[in-house]
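Notebook entry, structure prediction.
Reason for the run: the old model in the group folder had no record of what sequence produced it. Starting over properly, with the input documented here first.
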Amino acid sequence: MGDPRYNATNQISVPKALELVRNSETGEVHPSVDATLERAISTLWTKIKARPDTYVMTKDEFAVFNYFRARYAGDETARKAVGRFWNNHKGDLNGLDSS
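New structure, fully documented this time:
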């Protein structure tokens, strides 16, 4: 039997998936957590690519992007999207890593 938190009828939310990967002591990620985050980054990257000079990520979207930042290292579109986030975001930035 698998972990009841991760099954086909109990999809995990993106914020919960991020929390789980950040708190993982072993670095191992359950396949459903990985799938949730991969769907989220794919959807976000599609939005960014559709509006490469104007799309501004939400705080939640930036949290996902930040988790995958190594994937986009050196990508000019990604660099600009991150810059737009920091130039436009207002409010609580607790929990966001600017590196």
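Summary: The chain is about 50% helix and 0% strand.
The old model has been moved to the deprecated folder.
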